[in-house]
Every structure is written in structure tokens, then in C-alpha cells.
Design a protein that fits this description.
single chain, 352 residues, alpha+beta, five-stranded antiparallel β-sheet, four-stranded antiparallel β-sheet
Length: 352
């Protein structure tokens, strides 16, 4: 029964610890993933900046643009137009894309549009540059880019890096837009997993989890054993009578062990306690055994029981009974004063 209880206790503790471990890992993962996405975005912006600086733009473009000094609060126009040698082109202005642009600086947006209109982005080259900045930031995961470009006629062409077979929604770091009218959309991916983001935390967490579960389990067992020990102590401290040995023949050996090492050898009319011994007269000895055999009644003897056992001829009187009990009490208290015999209604009780 106790073993089953311990197994159930261990299971409960392990379940609670597992839930705590799960939420701790979840919080750590989300926190580190957020940092990873921030780093991935900032390094990509650096890569785009390097791409722009490595090119020369020829042929001016004239833009008709809204005032976006305060980008978040500005009232945006419905469209943006620009003029080149082939004519005037108008694009619908998408507010959501506008707020996810790579920069809030209108001058830099213009440079991006001019640069990548004349010299389109070379995707693998940009990914290599981004990978370099990622490594410098301590990010070693494989990277991939997916780009959609909308031309002046509104047609969209899409390309991706040649080694991005693993590219999927769960690996998407961010979506960003480049240029005015958001004509370039870039989706950036990193080949990461829960393990390579928080493998150190998982290993340490598992070690801490195992140690904590073990300590909690051991502590629970300690408390459980302490409670059992207290209960046992309470039981031990209660008056307990135990027949050590009894033989059902003419040479009956009857020994009773009371609390605290007090032993009564009924067959020898002998009581002993802490190495001291005392011989009892036959009558007190018989009376003490009568008391000890009344465990079910709380060691209570009625006057009638005493008189029938000690004076079978009917010569018992209240005074004789009282004196017999007093002699037994006196003999016992010579060895152990904690044991007493008290008068109760129509009898006496041995108080252990």
C-alpha cells in the first residue's frame, strides 16, 4: 500500500514539474525567438544598405509623394505616382505595406526605388551578404529569401534562393517592403528549430527538473515518514498490553509487556521495570492479571468481578476489595509511579 502511494506521489510531482518545465521552456523559446527575429531584421537592413551602396544609379526619376514626416500619424494618400522617360505611372498606396517598409526615411525609400528599378536585386548575392551579417551577430542558421517584385504595369514576378527547399511558414522571420509604392516584397527565412534555439536551456532545464523532482519527492517522503513516525509514537505511547508467551498447559508461562518496559510475569508473580524486580503476593498478582485481561473494557474491573475471582466463597466486602486494590497499587508504584489504579463507578480502572 505504501509503495503504491509513493508511486502515485512521484507521478503527481513529476506531472506538476513537467507542466512548470513546459511553460518555462515556452517562455524562454518565445523570448529568444523574438530576439532572433529582431537581429535577423536588423542584419537584413544592413545587407540591403550594402547592396545599395555598391551600385550607381543613372537617370533621374520624379516622384509625387505624400508628406510622411510623421509616418504613423500622417494621413496617407490613396496612390503614389512617378514620372520617367516612358511616362507617368501610378501605384495604389498600401498602408499596411507602407508601415512595414524597410525604412521610414523618404529619401532612402527614393534611393531604394531608383536603385532596384535600374539594377534589380540579385537574390543569392543579397542572401550571402545577409548571411555574413548574421554570422557576425552570432546567428549560424541557414538563411533563405523569397522576393516578389511588382513592375510599373502592376505585374508581379517572384523568385527565391536556390537552396531554400526547407522554406516554410514556421521558419519565416519577417516580411519587409522596399521602395515607394512597396514594389518589392521580401520574405526572410531562417532554418531554425526549437532545439537549436534553446538546446542549452532544455538541457539545463531537464537537469534542474530531475534534481527538483528528486528533492521534492524525497522531501515528501520525509514528511510522510515523519507523520507516520508521529502516529506510531502516539500509538506506542498509548497503554499497550502484549502477551509475550503463553503455553496452554499446566506449566503456563504468561508474561505481559506494558508501556515503557514494564513487564509482569504472571506465572512467577513477578514485576520488573528498568532492571528492578519485585515479587508480588498471589492475591495482588492475580488481581493485576485480571486487570490486564480486561483490555477491551479499558482495564476496568467491576467489584463483582474482583470478589468472584479473589473470594469465590462469597466472603468479599467492599473494604477487603479496597485493601486488595491498595496493596497492588502500592507494589506497582514502588517500581513505576506513572501507573495507577483509580476508583470508578462500581469498580476500579488500571491507568497505564
Amino acid at each position: 500500500m505504501m509503495r503504491t502511494y509513493n508511486v502515485i506521489l512521484l507521478f503527481i510531482v513529476a506531472c506538476i514539474g513537467g507542466v512548470v518545465f513546459f511553460f518555462a521552456c515556452k517562455y524562454t523559446y518565445e523570448s529568444k525567438l523574438s530576439i532572433l527575429k529582431q537581429k535577423a531584421r536588423s542584419t537584413f537592413i544592413e545587407a540591403v544598405d550594402q547592396e545599395v551602396k555598391s551600385r550607381n544609379v543613372e537617370g533621374p526619376l520624379v516622384f509625387t509623394l505624400p508628406d510622411m514626416a510623421n509616418m504613423k500619424n500622417a494621413e496617407l494618400l490613396d496612390s503614389v505616382s512617378y514620372i520617367d522617360s516612358t511616362g507617368i505611372y501610378k501605384f495604389k498606396f498600401d498602408k499596411e505595406k507602407h508601415y512595414n517598409n524597410i525604412t521610414t526615411d523618404t529619401s532612402i525609400r527614393m534611393i531604394h526605388s531608383i536603385t532596384f528599378k535600374e539594377n534589380p536585386i540579385r537574390l543569392d548575392s543579397l542572401n550571402i551578404i545577409w548571411k555574413k551579417y548574421l554570422n557576425e551577430s552570432g546567428i549560424s542558421q541557414e538563411s533563405a529569401l523569397y522576393i516578389s517584385v511588382m513592375d510599373r504595369f502592376g505585374d508581379v514576378t517572384s523568385t527565391s534562393t536556390s537552396y531554400s527547399e526547407w522554406r516554410k511558414c514556421s521558419n519565416l522571420m519577417f516580411t519587409i517592403f522596399i521602395g515607394y509604392a512597396c514594389e518589392i516584397e521580401v520574405m526572410a527565412y531562417l532554418h531554425y528549430s526549437v532545439w537549436n534555439i534553446i538546446y542549452v536551456e532544455i538541457i539545463l532545464g531537464l537537469l534542474i527538473y530531475i534534481v527538483c523532482i528528486y528533492m521534492i519527492y524525497k522531501f515528501s517522503l520525509f514528511v510522510q515518514n515523519k507523520i507516520v513516525s508521529i502516529r506510531k509514537k502516539e500509538v506506542i505511547e498509548k497503554p499497550i498490553i502484549k502477551i509475550v508467551k503463553e503455553m496452554n498447559d499446566s506449566s503456563s508461562i504468561r508474561s505481559y509487556k506494558l508501556r515503557g518496559g514494564f513487564i509482569f510475569h504472571a506465572d512467577q508473580n513477578l514485576i520488573e521495570f528498568n532492571g528492578q524486580q519485585k515479587i508480588l503476593q498471589p492475591q495482588p498478582s492475580k488481581l493485576l492479571e485480571l486487570f490486564l485481561r480486561m483490555e477491551e473494557t479499558g482495564y476496568v474491573l467491576k467489584n463483582s468481578d474482583i470478589s468472584e475471582s479473589l473470594w469465590s466463597d462469597g466472603s468479599a466486602t467492599p473494604d477487603r476489595i479496597h485493601k486488595a486494590v491498595a496493596r497492588l497499587r502500592s507494589n506497582i508504584k514502588e517500581l513505576d509511579s506513572s501507573i495507577d489504579i483509580k476508583k470508578c463507578v462500581d469498580g476500579y480502572q488500571l491507568v497505564l
